From TrEMBL:
The chain crosses the membrane at residues 15-35, 56-83, 89-112. This is Uncharacterized protein. Keywords: Membrane, Transmembrane, Transmembrane helix. It comes from the Bacteria.
Amino acid sequence: MDPTGVRSNYGRSMAVAFGWYATVVAALAVGTLSVPSAPQDDCTAMFSCLSPLEKLLLVGLFGGAPVLVGLLIVTAAVTALLVRRISSVVLSGTLSAVVSGVACALVAGVYLGRS
């Protein structure tokens, strides 16, 4: 154990940030699955007859997983910086999740702005 408690605060702050990410993912899943889908008559196009759960899993696998990995990498770096300055585990974990979300939004904006 580190005498200053930085190592234990880092782990708990990361757990708080993971909790925020789990909350957002759960909210997206509940929101997506609770909307009824209109009946589709034409199933000739690829992926046109997927259920809402199958669509959610497909988008999550190919779109959400890389974004989540990027968020976790940025969160780990930001948490390492914040935990040395902020003694509150909840505040440092929440701030690192917010900063990571803003960084992700900026990267997405730059990426989408170029295409």
